[in-house]
Specification:
This is 6-phosphogluconate dehydrogenase (Decarboxylating). Keywords: Gluconate utilization, Oxidoreductase. By secondary structure, the chain is an alpha/beta fold. The chain is built from 13 helices and seven strands. Helix 3 packs parallel to helix 4 and helix 8 packs antiparallel against helix 9 (220-231). It is globular.
């Protein structure tokens, strides 16, 4: 099958390579000249045979909105746009209405797999009509992990791919997936910190590695933590600063809107905010209050720190 792919970064570039290995033709466009097959979106559309399928894999937000809008001016009725970034699901619904007016189909695809997807395959959560998804199904099948077999040797359906519902359902599913990911990473990080904090444990990386087989907390994330500790046993080369790319916030927002208790995911999101503070104003207030009501000692700011200009 032929596919136009817009965005050839870490994810998009690997996806293009996996598709080509699977026998598909990929025409790629990127702002970087060294990566692309064509030098513009009009040239990409011109290089594809109708009905066209174009996958957008650029950063969420304005870059995605601008790309989808331009494709809406270039594509023809019967073509399909797949948006595979980490967009907010409500943006997908706006894009769908805009493209439907022109007879162009739209699919939102939540993609998980990171830089390992080239070899291992990607987990795909898509939203759209059955007709549009069917047009792109060969692409999804090439990107997803190999379908495993059950004990009787029968292929297990649904592994690594789901048509989650109408437009918006794909990115909503990926949003929740990433919220869960936040909480899992936070739990592993807290466990690591406790192991490292006590003198009793002499081999922290070894303990973490021992959990990867036969335990109920084994996972791919845990395997990646083991890999990180092998490269840097005390994580001395990494600053304890964690960004959030939006999905964790949106997950908590939806939990509030739908009255779903989500204390663990919410706490993991707030922990990332804390990681960006060298000197937490909240904890300054907590320390001051403890001193006021109980006379508890506080740690004074060093003179040279106090004299820093504002």
């Amino acid at each position: 099958m032929q596919l136009g792919l817009v965005g050839l970064g870490k994810m998009g570039g690997n996806m293009a390579e996996r598709l080509r290995r699977g026998g598909h033709e990929v025409v790629g466009y990127d702002h970087s000249p060294g990566k692309r097959d064509v030098d513009s979106l009009p040239a990409l559309v011109e290089a594809l045979s109708a009905p066209r399928v174009v996958w957008v894999m650029v950063p969420a937000g304005e870059p995605t909105k601008a790309t989808v809008k331009e494709l809406g001016e270039l594509l023809s009725p019967g073509d399909v746009v797949i948006e595979g970034g980490n967009s907010k699901y409500t943006d997908d619904q706006v894009h769908d209405v805009m493209l439907r007016e022109k007879g162009i189909g739209y699919i939102d695809a939540g993609v998980s797999g990171g830089v390992w997807g080239l070899e291992n395959g990607y987990a795909l959560m898509v939203g759209g009509t059955k007709e549009d998804v069917a047009k792109a199904q060969p692409i999804f099948d090439a990107l997803r992990p190999p379908t495993p077999e059950d004990a009787s040797g029968q292929a297990m359906p649904g592994v690594g791919f789901v048509h989650a519902g109408p437009v918006g359902a794909g990115h909503f599913s990926k949003m929740v997936h990433n919220g869960i990911e936040y909480a899992m990473m936070q739990a592993y990080g807290e466990g690591y910190e406790l192991l490292a904090a006590v003198d009793l444990i002499e081999d922290v990386p070894g303990v973490v590695a021992s959990w990867t087989q036969g335990t109920v907390i084994r996972s791919w994330l845990l395997d990646l933590l083991v890999r990180a500790l092998q490269e840097d046993p005390e994580l001395e080369r990494i600053k304890g600063y964690a960004e959030d790319s939006g999905e964790g916030r949106w997950t908590v927002e939806q939990a509030i809107e739908n009255a779903v208790p989500m204390p663990t995911i919410a706490a993991s999101l707030f922990a990332r905010f804390v990681s960006r503070q060298d000197d937490s104003p909240t904890m300054k207030a907590v320390a001051a209050l403890r001193q006021q009501f109980g006379g508890h000692a506080v740690h004074a700011v060093q003179a040279q720190e106090a004299e820093r200009p504002a």
